[in-house]
Design goal:
Layout (H helix, E strand, L loop, with lengths): L1 E9 L5 E10 L4 E6 L5 H8 L7 E6 L2 E2 L5 H10 E5 L10 H6 L8 H5 L5 H13 L15 H14 L4 E5 L7 H18 L2 E5 L3 H7 L2 E6 L2 E7 L5 H8 L5 H4 L17 H9 L12
Parallel strand pairs: 3-8, 3-9, 6-7, 7-8
Antiparallel strand pairs: 1-2, 1-4, 4-5, 9-10
Helix pairs in contact: 5-6, 6-7
The structure holds adenosine-5'-triphosphate (ATP).
The site of adenosine-5'-triphosphate has 17 residues, from helix 1.
Amino acid sequence: MIKFENVDVVYPNGYKGLSDISLEINQGEFVAIIGLSGAGKSTLIRAVNGLVPYTNGTLTVGETVVDPKNKSKLRKLRSKVGMIFQQFNNVGRISVLNNVLIGRSAFTPTWRSLIGWYGSQDKEVAFQSLERVGIVEKAYNRAAALSGGQQQRVAIARVLAQDPEVILADEPVASLDPPTARKVLGDLRTIQRDLGITCVVNMHHLDLARDYADRIIGMRNGEVVFDGPTQDATDSVIADVYQRPLSAEEISQAQGDGRLGAGVENPTESDLTEAVTAASSDSDRKDTV
Ligand SMILES: Nc1ncnc2c1ncn2[C@@H]1O[C@H](COP(=O)(O)OP(=O)(O)OP(=O)(O)O)[C@@H](O)[C@H]1O
């Protein structure tokens, strides 16, 4: 489904963010990416939808070769690859429902999505998506008025409304308290199991990765140093990924924040808009009204 073949990412300043990555992620897997700050987790995830362009090798999602230079191909890819971020990236001043409808942009002519004119079928999909994450009663609230956990659920519902094959989640629970983090990961897990959507999730806490993922990929210095089923990711294996024993905070989110620093630059507004609104100008999209 997602296939990295000898993929490198070299940033414009010459820094090698990913080095010779070869791996395959199958349709319907729930994969956690772990590793120290700066290991390359965000770079790996963002390469999949072209937010970070890879500079060598081949990266494919399904039948599509990710081509960061081909904007129209990229938009089409992003319509099938939803992305959620640590900071939710909802539009705070508009309603929850309208935020979720943004996920329908790929199915709506550009001029109509620009004025927020979505058809009844789109609204039905949006309501179903909100129901799936348990916040349908918030549909007409302003997104900014919701709690962090609810806002992340809005982001998940928006991605679901895209009808994605893959959900990429770049530290989706890093801003949430431990119980809320578990609820949000539980939603993602249910979505993956019920709908067969592939989930690739960056996480800072080993206990969350172990509790929710089928498979763990451990990264260090831009390389994959562990890749296996979750049950094989023992403490000693993970200590090897980190090259030292883990602290209690790194193992369990309940022990504290556990973050060790900042990662890739925040994406620009336009990158985010593109990543979440996907293929709104593709010629083969369907008008659903
Ligand atoms: N735009 C950029 N230009 C140059 N180097 C970058 C850029 N973005 C990231 N890097 C570097 O690439 C490396 C990998 O960063 P990345 O954010 O992918 O790591 P991470 O494992 O996700 O870290 P964190 O857990 O802190 O988010 C880091 O050393 C980082 O400083």
